[in-house]
Amino acid sequence: MPDAMDIFSTREAIEFSPGVYWIGAMDPSLRTFDIILKTANGTSYNAYLIRGSEGVAIVDTVKENFSEEFFRRLESVASYDEIKVIVLNHLEPDHSGALPQLMERAPHAQLYISQRATAMLKGLLNRSNDDFEYTTVVTNDLVSLGDRTLRFLHTPFLHWPDTQCTYLEEQQVLFSGDVFGCHFCDGRLFNDKVGDFRFSFDYYYAHIMRPFKQHVLNALDLIEPLALNIIAPTHGPILRDRPARYVKHYRELSTSSLSGEIGDNEKSLMIFYMSSYGNTARMAEAIFAGADEVEGARVSLFDLEGGEVDPFVDLIEGADALVFGSPTINGDAVKPVWDLLSSLVVINLKGKLGAAFGSYGWSGEAIAMIEDRMRGLKMRVPLSGVRVKLIPDDDELSQCRAYGRNIATILVGKRIENHVLDLADLA
């Protein structure tokens, strides 16, 4: 077998565990993946072949325009009539692109997919489900290759609803799909040989897995008890050196650091604002003071003029309530507020409490626009925002203080006197 250092000059399979081969493809020139991800080092489309005493299994395929490379590597170690099992851990086109050809070349093979993948099969492969014979599997279902056993783990929404992982029991290899992957193309293939891919690993997690943190934690509950010699993802290096540390790192990335900073009985409320002439800032300070009066609420105040957006995203992820303040300029909220709101698509805000406030000179549309955005992010907005024309007077600042107190009161689960909540905003 060729050394992994020669991967760009060979079309042969790479054996990395007895009878287990990498048969994927490298895409070093790719610079943008799925529009939103930058790929400074390109990517790989990892596919695998497992040889058992009673047949061969293929785990995942490659992007369609890399099919020739995939089939040449496959053919270097197996014939198509030996293939008994095809597993697709995830049906996204970069993993399923070569499946139609593979099914034609290995017509006796049985396709194994998750139950949620059936609805996607027709659309992604542009064929009727009747064109394929397939078996759906759930956690702990087994497939035997004689002396090799594949066990399936249901890991939905990592990062599509159909995602699963496949565990080769005898050799303790986890074929993890997109989990533990990254867009990093390096012909040396293995994590103990390639260049430094830490940034790519964390960047991939932040953009692909972070919005589904609870699903990551659920998957880790299945994965952490496994004995792991190797983690074989569908993108990036094969993790053969201390694979458990990548599992541990996923646990760290998926656990809020804020939980260790506030008490078990406290709720975190964060106020973010931008002020042109100091009027919205005065409102923010009054809302902060009111909220801080409520026992059980830990309140923080941040001026967006003095900070970068990215660190605030980490803070927001661990918060329970978010309040945004903006003046209205040209009929809109100001850009730093929109920049922060638009960056929040990478985290799960569903159910967090939201509120808005701001000063205005003419029409004051910013507050309603911010509220609409928060509702679009699945946040709860139980109180109408506070608007003040130009400079807030003492009575208006008192209203702001009461507004902050009311938001914090709702946050800690108490009733506001003489106030009726809109049930739609509590959904």
A few lines on this structure:
With 427 residues, this protein is α/β, with parallel strands linked by helices. It has helices at residues 67-75, 93-96, 99-105, 118-125, 198-209, 213-223, 244-253, 279-292, 309-318, 335-343, 366-376, 394-411; strands at 14-17, 20-22, 25-27, 32-33, 37-38, 43-45, 48-52, 55-59, 83-87, 110-114, 134-137, 142-144, 149-154, 164-168, 173-177, 230-233, 267-273, 297-303, 321-325, 353-360, 386-389.
Please count the helical segments. 12
Helix amount: 25-40%
Distance between the termini: 59 Å
Per CATH, the class of the largest domain reads Alpha Beta
What proportion of the residues form beta strands (DSSP E)?
15-25%
The main sheet orders its strands as 1-2-7-8-9-10-11
Main β sheet profile? 7 strands, mixed
Give a count of the beta strands, DSSP E runs of length 2 or more.
21
Specify Rg, calculated over alpha carbons: 26 Å
Class from helix and strand fractions: alpha/beta
Name the average pLDDT: 91
| Shape label | elongated
Question: What ranges have pLDDT less than 50 throughout 5 or more consecutive residues?
Answer: 420-427
The number of distinct structural domains comes to: 2
Mind explaining what this structure looks like?
With 427 residues, the chain is of the alpha/beta class. It has two domains: 4-255, 4-Layer Sandwich (Metallo-beta-lactamase, Chain A), CATH 3.60.15; 261-426, 3-Layer(aba) Sandwich (Rossmann fold). The protein is 29% helix and 22% strand. It has helices at residues 67-75, 93-96, 99-105, 118-125, 198-209, 213-223, 244-253, 279-292, 309-318, 335-343, 366-376, 394-411, and strands at residues 14-17, 20-22, 25-27, 32-33, 37-38, 43-45, 48-52, 55-59, 83-87, 110-114, 134-137, 142-144, 149-154, 164-168, 173-177, 230-233, 267-273, 297-303, 321-325, 353-360, 386-389. It has a seven-stranded mixed sheet, with no helix packed on it. The chain has a five-stranded mixed sheet with strand order 12-13-14-15-16. A hairpin with a 3-residue loop joins strand 4 and strand 5. Helix 8 (279-292) crosses helix 12 (394-411). The longest helix has 18 residues, at 394-411. It is elongated. Residues 420-427 have low confidence and may be disordered.
